[in-house]
Amino acid sequence: MSKGFDDIPFFDEEPAPRKPAPAAGGIAARAMAARDKAKRPDYLSGLNPEQTEAVETLEGPVLVLAGAGTGKTRVLTTRIAHILSTGRAFPSQILAVTFTNKAAREMKERIGVLVGHAVEGMPWLGTFHSIGVKLLRRHAELVGLRSDFTILDTDDVVRLIKQLIQAEGLDDKRWPAKQFAGMIDTWKNKGLDPSQIPEGDARAFANGKGRELYAAYQNRLLTLNACDFGDLLLHPIRMFRANPDVLREYHDKFRYILVDEYQDTNTAQYMWLRLLAQRPRAKTEAKAAAPGEARASRSWPDDVSSAPAERSRASGDSVSANHRAEARRGQAAVAPDGAPPRSEPRSGDSVSANRHQQINICCVGDDDQSIYGWRGAEVDNILRFEKDFPGAKVIKLERNYRSTEHILGAAAHLIAHNEGRLGKTLFTERTNPDDEKVHVHAAWDSEEEARAIGEEIEQLQRQKHNLNDIAILVRASFQMREFEDRFVTLGLNYRVIGGPRFYERLEIRDAMAYFRLVCQPADDLAFERIVNTPKRGLGDTTVRTLHDYARARDIPMFAAASDIIETDELKPKARKALFDVVTDFRRWQTLLETTPHTELAEQILDESGYTAMWQADKSAEAPGRLENLRELIRSMEAFESLRGFLEHVALVMDAEQNEDMDAVSIMTLHSAKGLEFDTVFLPGWEEGLFPHQRALDEGGRAGLEEERRLAYVGITRAKRRCHIWFVSNRRIHGLWQSTMPSRFLDELPIDHVEVAEQDVSYGGYGRGGYGQSRFDKADPFENSYQTPGWKRAQQHRSEATRDNWGTRSGHAVERIGYGESGPRTRMIEGELVAKSTTSEPSRFNIGDRVFHLKFGNGNIAAIEGNKLTIDFDRAGQKRVLDGFVERV
DNA sequence: CCTGAGAAGTTTTTT
DNA sequence: ACTTCTCAGG
């Protein structure tokens, strides 16, 4: 069943260990064992009792609930080091899954540091997806693929779906491919085949053809010998269910399973994990080989036994080639610290003993940091761990090593407003009277917010703080721009983390399509992408002809092209052009084996005319694109072959950043998870933005709680200083809106919060010809809240909220001036923003003399709904919302 | 084939 | 309000 197991060249198992093993029971081994007993290994020192327990509880299921900053990664890596150095397993017998490549990389590095060089990497440490790819490359034929299948990214997927929608004769305007791609993704996150999707979902798209379309999509992928990201999880699941013998090999193989960020697992990942982590019960196993078995496990997870039970017998029949190979290596193996790998099979006898070995799963996570519900993560997975794995040991890590007590106190009080938590309380023993409280600041608008934060950062810079220790964490990426603009004018270094990816750029994707087609002539998506890029006179008509020709014969388009140029089906001009393309690719394909890949890549881009195309392009971005192409070639150097590079890009999609520069980090709260900074700025704490209106609309109470967890994540990123900001006016989609401070501000504990009073250094805001700013006044926070817009916001709120939330009111921000409105309800869909677009007749008349806080006095020149055009005495003509001016 | 007008969509993001 | 993409018409 698992043929091809050993002859796929892409991945090597661990290299053979170097040192010979001391004879079992020999003097040296006994001495070492004694030494191990007497002396705790270095890597265990410095762990607190809970961490130690999490590291040393190696048998049975373990759930580690690790609050923010409690040493989660340290526990994981130390646990692995412990398993390895006590010889309980080889690196290749440990399955360790993370969500991001970054986390996987970090873990590898840290394990390397702990155990030294003796461990040459861990072949099964990686993201769910990269491990999925590895499994699939080995067993591709079991799910109807070839092992050289391509991995499609979202862009490819959307284009493919668009083709399918058109092929169905549907209007691709009415039924956007992108939307359907999203639906498929959601289904796949839940582990659903086309046959399993809810009827409602199936009907919701394409005149009820949702299900057919999904099925057609899956078929097309198989024809293309391709996978989307979801398939990287689902195919292995299918494969394991249909082939219990293959699954058994992996049960035997993986003694220890570790999962990072368990709160982020979606249903598919959960299914995947349970398949690998739970051996079937003895009873089930007896009929495991029966064909019906795969079917029987369909309704899983509900009917699967929860206990990772031991097997009743060793069925010596299926020790795989791989397993034997591993056992062979075991003969000569030495664990990193020199101790013999005790439980490694050394004889036929211990091989069968091994078959009784239980699989030890350890999941690490924090329910309070679950912020990916919107993309299918199921917090529930972590909440029901004990049910899934009876007898599980649950260890809470609550001792925080990162933040001051004020920061922790603020975060804890905030998150306590969530229900349905497992309930942890972080604490720290480091208290220092000098520690700053969490600061809450108000600003007039987002521009001022950016300016003030910019100044504060310059202040820190003058105090010799590293910019690298400072971060601005925003809720939505559009907030970043204002900071970037400001920092550019200030000349302050910054780096934006996240954002558009290198490998998603047009020119990079084009170049990659060339490379893909060279390596993989059946890659139709790549073919279509570049067949006429640069322009070769192979327009729609030619491509359609090719497409039809290929479909009719069920061959790839490249093959169709090769055929069709032998016929006279095309016009001479197109035929010649196509002939050239085909000959080019054939030539490059032959060079693949002989020419160094970077050289070949360059050659491809040059000879295809792709480079020339951008050189001829006179647009502003052309030079940048050329630079990116050079960068692409450069980044290939680190890889052995074009194929290896393609694989890496498909999975990683990320190019690393320049870490050398001292710069402020700007990123979203989501991408900040797992990071820490001395000083953290959290701008934009306003209703509607944070919590985000859409999260509330679509997620209801759960949505609100997830937003609150996001706030929690934000605050807990800070080690020493945390500055929260909100503004009264923000431009959203071009419209200025008055905003209300976030309800999360009310949920901060007054004891740990300090509301910023007037700060001399802010005195300059709003001057520069605009007349008076709020900050020019004695109480900077008082007057802004007396504007009509503000008052209206107040009114809206008190109407909407007057009642029942007796818990507490927001004294934290009381001094800012809106505390008098009293307790608020915990409304989810309240009137959150004083809507500036009303259709009521204006309160103003043309010619009225008015005052605006920012622009000063002026006369109304025109009225358009609630928008006023005003000739200001000092600031000139401006359009403003009527909420922001007062008659004088 | 190129260009410009019009439409649509603007939470969070990995793989 | 702004950007980005699509498509129609030159």
Text of the CATH class of the largest domain: Alpha Beta
| Share of helical residues | 40-55%
CATH architecture of the largest domain: 3-Layer(aba) Sandwich
CATH topology of the largest domain: Rossmann fold
CATH homology group of the largest domain: P-loop containing nucleotide triphosphate hydrolases
Determine the mean pLDDT.
77
Oligomer: single chain
Q: Given the helix and strand composition, which structural class is it?
A: alpha/beta
| Alpha carbon gap, first and last residue | 86 Å
Description:
The chain is of the alpha/beta class. The strands form four sheets. Strands 9, 10, 11, 12, 13, 14, 15 and 16 form an eight-stranded mixed sheet that branches. It has a six-stranded parallel sheet with strand order 3-2-6-7-1-8, with helices on both faces. Strands 20-19-18-17-21 form a five-stranded antiparallel sheet, with no helix packed on it. A hairpin with a 2-residue loop joins strand 18 (856-864) and strand 19. It binds a DNA duplex (15 and 10 nucleotides) through helix 5, helix 10, helix 30, helix 31 and helix 32.
Q: Quick summary of this structure?
A:
By secondary structure, this protein is α/β, with parallel strands linked by helices. The chain folds into 5 domains: 42-148 and 228-280 and 357-397, Rossmann fold, CATH 3.40.50; 150-224, Arc Repressor Mutant, subunit A (Orthogonal Bundle), CATH 1.10.10.160; 405-500 and 658-755, Rossmann fold; 503-637, PCRA, domain 4 (Orthogonal Bundle), CATH 1.10.486; 848-887. 42% of the residues lie in helices and 12% in strands.
